[in-house]
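G., before I forget:
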Amino acid sequence: MNPVNYLYLSALLFTIGAAGVLVRRNAIIVFMCVELMLNACNLAFVTFSRIHGNLDGQIIAFFTMVVAAAEVVVGLAIILMIFRVRHSASVDDANLMKL
Amino acid sequence: MGATHHVAADYFDGYSVVGLVAVVGVLFVAVAFGAGQLLRPTAPTPEKLLTYECGVDPVGEDWAHTQIRYYVYAFLYVIFAIDAIYLFPWATVFAADGFGGTTLVEMFVFIGFLAVGLLYAWKKGVLEWT
Amino acid sequence: MTSLVQSVDWVAVAPVLVTALTGLAVLVTDLFLAPRHKPLLGWVTIAGLALAALCLIPLTDGDRATFCLTTGDRQCSYVADHFALAVQLLVVGGALLTALLSVTTVRREALPAGEYWFLLLSSAAGAALLPASRDLATLIVALEVASLPAFALVGLRRGDRGSAEAALKFFLSSVVATAVSLLGVSFVYAATGSLHLDTVAGGLDDVDPRLNALAALGVVLTLVGFAFKLAAVPFHFWVPDSYVGAPLPVAAYLSVVGKSAGFSGLALVTVVAFRPYADTWGPALAVLAALTMTTGNVAALRQRPDQPASAVRLLAWSSVGQAGYLLVPLAAAGYHDDPEEMVGATVAYALMYAVVNLGAFAVVALVAENRPGHRLTDHRALFSRNPLAALTMGFFLLCLAGLPPGVIGLFAKVAVFRTAVDSGLGWLAVVMAVNVTIALYYYLKWTALLFATPTTATPTTTPAARATATTAPAAPTPGTATPGAPGQATAPTATGSTVAGSTATAAREPSVPASVPHPLTAAIALAAALGVALSGAPQLILRLASGTLF
């Protein structure tokens, strides 16, 4: 298959991700869109690597994958922490109402 | 070259019926909803805009908390599964000439660093199901 | 069959490696340490960072390189040249001062000790790797290693909503910037077929004309991720909230080491890799520099001294303004025939800024020992409570402003200014001069606040007389002389409603409080000693500004 098609797909994925980051307000969905952007970059890297016939692009794609995974863990931990804080805050409010 | 093209063309012809059905399906829904949109009167009231929940007034919000006990395992899994990708390029070369024992040891050093993460998780009590 | 295993120059990578391994050691030790021994971890961290700084000494020739390709043009991925060494000194030294600041914070705010020190060291290791890396993959990985622990550090205060939200804001915007940067890298790779900076420079020299737009777009997008770390406008909006939400030492760390990661990455990609596209990134950086310093300084001007955390907010905005100055030589490099000559001025300025800004944060932490609000008004009349702290703070602020006796601040600003003039960026030089003048206002206002006396010799209690009495010592600057200024209206302990009241205040706060923790004193003393030494012998860092570092 013509490698350019992969580039179209990559551009499409990156655009969807970028639009999602700009439009959506839910932290988790914004975060998923960021992952989409990173994976679009990966696809581009691997395709360019194929076009150039060298491995540099594949190597950076490996590192991008690990960077993305590390971001997932740190990001979800932060988001969880926010949910937890807000949850406890709302519980406190309910207690105040009872008193 | 030409023959393979023919085969590929035949192959994709087989799917043209599927494509046609999909297009008809999309059109059917689009026309039905479009016609409905045009024909019906619109007079929204707060009650009408409520989420329909078996006819009863909806309770609570659309965001519900579910208890996911295993999310830390999921995090650990993500880290370890992704780091496994470094094993694949290594696996293709470590047995080749000129790499030898050093390359083998290097990978175990790498896995050792990952194991420190596991040790951390274990000592923090994350691996126990409470 | 010869061995294909590449040999690694461990001495060259030692500064990064020692930092990272200390981090790992701290994390593992923490698991097996009884809670009462936890403070030891802070000292292990400080020792590790000092060791990493010592590891820079055998490298001073600046001719080491490792992780090189064995074929082709033998490009190296890690080069310990003078640029890398100077920035590594900044990073390791900055992390060391941050660690000294953190010792008390970790104990007082009950932050998880092992995790805190591990994250600090990991981030410092990434920031130390960044200036030495010479391929785009290593640069991106180093940038992420420097950033990811920083997100966690910002959000480390458990159950604190401000901390968590600051971390989320910082995290999401930073991750988006990284993704955009990666897209840029992929475009550059598409145009050149390589990731090594020198090969990229060669490849960009003769890009297929059809790929010209793609390469230019890639160059600009790649800058985004680094500009974000530097907090250049318009990628600065996370700064004030993150600094306020984070523990104070982490804010100090972000303002110095985080910025160093940004500017060293920018310097490497622009001056080394994208040199053929100087006509694209030169104007972009010049506009970025002008916007950054103007926005930062104007926003710093608008801070109200009586607001909670106004001191941290002011330092945050002033750090945005300072980032603008750091960008000026990089922009100038885009217009100069010999771009590598320009970068030195940025490094020299960054070293000066690191010392005095960390010092200023340290004094803010010291003041917060007694008055934890981080308000500017808490600094009122610091001189009468703690003369030494007030004098050092005054010195740091004057260095940041660029006025004598902060000679080094002045010289570093002149060096930056000269790069703009030399490369024909007259308009940027003018913008910078205007901004330095704007910044004088708020730095001097703060300095005057330090030396304002809470009480006067005339024992009057009438409100009108009190107003004149309290405003008189602050007369040199117009801002504090306004009788209705909120700072004076809402700082009753500082202004003192009666003479008796203010002497009571003075009695409660002895001139050198016994409770001042030693590490904090050490951090202030170290920063002050470095600042004074540099002011006495500015050539120590101005040497960097003349000649090339690469």
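The beta strands of chain C are 64-68, 76-80. Chain C touches chain B through ten residues (CB under 8 Å).

More on Monday.
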